[in-house]
Write a structure and sequence with these properties.
Two copies of one chain form a homodimer. The first copy, chain A, is an alpha/beta fold and about 400 residues long. The first copy, chain A, has three domains: about 160 residues, NAD(P)-binding Rossmann-like Domain (Rossmann fold, 3-Layer(aba) Sandwich), CATH 3.40.50; about 160 residues, Dihydrodipicolinate Reductase, domain 2 (2-Layer Sandwich); about 60 residues, Alpha-Beta Plaits. Chain A is built from 14 helices and 19 strands. In chain A, strands 7, 9, 10, 11, 12, 13, 15, 16, 17, 18 and 19 form an eleven-stranded mixed sheet that branches. A six-stranded parallel sheet of chain A has the order 3-2-1-4-5-6, with helices on both faces. Chain A is elongated and about 75 Å long. At the A-B interface, helix 1, helix 2, helix 6, strand 13 and helix 12 of A face helix 1, helix 2, helix 6, strand 13 and helix 12 of B.
Chain lengths: ~400, ~400
């Protein structure tokens, strides 16, 4: 019997417990009959009436001291005490499986190193892309590739809001409010709509792809709060969808450029067809070409599915040191000067626009002038936009 | 140093050698510095001038007898002697990594069992979906799921032909001929366009998903040779794409239904957007929901990428027994009576059609009457079609 402790019995943690019950048989078939037992649930709350209510503990000590517990599932969220508890569990010789992207983005390399040292595993498939297998395929199946780029729609809430805005002809605020009422957006949606959640996830994926810690502070991070229904219409009419992307790409100068921002994605790009709460991640390798992974990027059971995949790996004693070096990335390019084409919406007049940007094709929508720039370095673009002396919104165009 | 033998130095085998050279550094990083060495290439031909020409042997004996060789890559294609050689290599205590779907579909379970017995691996990621990671994600990441269905566009040649027919307004024969000239279709295209290649791949995926050997003989297999440009236009105008699918689904009666056939795929289904030589595989699990994997399903380097992922697994001594029981599937439902909606194109007159099928919506295209039936069991449909006493073509509609 494999004894598991679940730390944090919220949406994902309870999904893990449910999955263990639901698919006990399928699981046993893949582990040569080993049975999984949820021995502890660490949570500040009680869960009266829940079938596992008697497993609830309020402190980590009994878990650390119980040698029968070999796997700790960390589904607490937030940096602390999740980081502290995970470290203690690893130091106590237990494998840790996590869905916590904050901890992985910030302390992943350190925890991976401790796991290696202790001969256990620190696995984090569930930290990116919910139920979509992405960490392991990137690491394992694409191992013989040099990764040219990783581009993902990594936040289901933002994708849902953008899809809903276009479908229901709504502005951002209305779509957000309705998404909150439906439970698709949190009451405090900042981490989602300001891009921080996506930023953490692309930090993890780019650290994995390029081998050293890319910290969120090094990633330009823009959200979707300024996008209007008119922007989406302009995009559609010109052959694009607007998607919040996390993107890391290795360019010709050998540097890796990482960004989180909304992009106009060409309709021919498969990511433009990933809608609603779905996530999509495109990986381009020098051998495999482009590979796309899509699925539900969040939710109790999908995320639990990814957690259980990691648990299964630990159970089968498949020693893994998935991860990256505990060193700061030294391969990052200066994103502030990265060149892209851009969609601009501004209150500036057409004459002013043409004086600053030359012969661009300007059209008017509800009092705003909109146009698409040529490829231009970000720093140069900002200088030009300042010259407009008027309100503006910019969305990059994906190549 | 890890010594590898490559059996079969064709498109895939030479791609494997090229990948080992191209990404030696990335590979070493993931194997703690171990170097890969192609010690033997087994092929009937010589390759004068090739950098690895001195590794070529024409018999398997030196490979079997050389204890330094721990991994044999089988990229020969065809059942024999590939099956025989793979068996001998496994019995000699070497791990075998293969891209050979014929051998895996037919003898996979037996070879997996020998590998388990010998404490080595028999891995076959490259046998389905080219470079797309699918075997391992299905096995590992979706391990905690009960698989409801696996549906795939598994043959890049057919998908290319269907895409080209629609784009260039061509009939099947013209598109096939041009695909052959471009090297996208083989000179003898039967295995592709008659569906057998897809059939082998869905056999492998359904064996893996449901745990016992689903043999190709048990799978209904229809190809794309009867599809016309008009069929594609009708499909598009009614919100569908036509795709050759391999599909296995577990239905409410607990039985698994497996088929290879062209389907009208609704535009809302992501598979409908997978075009050209791309493959797409949708997996629905009871926990994860639906997950989609897309990428290049064939080609030298993409397939080599999948082979190398398996090689890496062996190198890292990650003992794997991916596979299924060496027993005949006892869970298959009777596909001949499976109910679907259907697109029918027939020379029968509208009156006859309405007498037989009731109030269906018939339209005429270039001398053919076309309509879509209600959900109807296949056996009942065939009885009705016979009553038309006229030529007909049927394409199933995917739900």
């Amino acid at each position: 019997m494999i004894n598991i402790a679940i730390m944090g019995f919220g949406v994902v943690g309870s999904g893990v417990a449910e999955t263990i019950t639901l698919n006990a048989k399928a699981f046993a078939e893949r582990t040569e009959g080993l049975e999984l037992n949820v021995k502890y649930i660490l949570d500040l709350r009680e869960f009266p009436g829940h079938p596992l209510a008697d497993r609830v503990v309020h402190e980590i000590t009994p878990i650390l001291e119980d040698e029968a517990v070999t796997i700790v599932v960390e589904t607490m969220g937030g940096t602390n005490p999740a980081y502290d508890f995970s470290k203690k569990a690893l130091l106590a010789g237990k494998s840790v499986v996590t869905s916590n992207k904050e901890v992985v983005a910030k302390h992943g390399a350190e925890l991976q190193a401790i796991a290696r040292e202790k001969g256990v595993s620190y696995l984090f498939e569930a930290s990116v892309g919910g139920g979509i297998p992405i960490i392991r395929p990137m690491w394992q199946c694409l191992a013989s590739n040099q990764i040219k780029s990783v581009t993902g729609i990594l936040n289901g809430t933002c994708n849902y809001i953008l899809t809903k805005m276009e479908k229901d002809k709504e502005d951002f605020e209305t779509a957000l409010k309705q998404s909150q009422e439906l439970g698709y957006a949190e009451r405090n949606p900042a981490a989602d709509v300001e891009g921080m959640d996506t930023c953490r996830k692309i930090s993890i994926l780019s650290s994995l792809a390029y081998g050293k810690t890319v910290s969120t502070e090094d990633v330009i991070c823009e959200g979707i709060t300024k996008i209007t229904y008119d922007d989406l219409v302009f995009a559609r009419e010109n052959g694009y969808s607007i998607k919040l992307l996390g993107r890391a790409s290795k360019e010709d100068d050998g540097k890796v450029y990482v960004i989180t921002a909304p992009f106009l994605v060409p309709k021919e790009n498969a990511l433009s067809t990933v809608n609603d709460v779905y996530n999509g991640i495109s990986v381009v390798g020098n051998v495999v070409g482009d590979v796309l992974f899509c699925g539900r990027g969040a939710g109790s059971l999908p995320t639990a599915s990814a957690v259980m995949a990691d648990v299964l790996d630990v159970v089968r004693d498949c020693k893994k040191s998935i991860g990256w070096k505990d060193e700061k990335a030294d391969f990052l390019g200066d994103m502030t000067c990265f060149a892209t084409s851009n969609y601009i919406r501004t209150k500036a007049e057409e004459n002013t626009i043409k004086t600053v940007f030359g012969a661009v094709n300007v059209s008017n929508r509800n009092g705003w002038n909109v146009f698409i720039t040529e490829q231009i370095k970000n720093c140069e673009l900002l200088t030009k936009l300042e010259k407009l002396s008027a309100e503006w919104v910019r969305i990059r165009v994906m190549q």
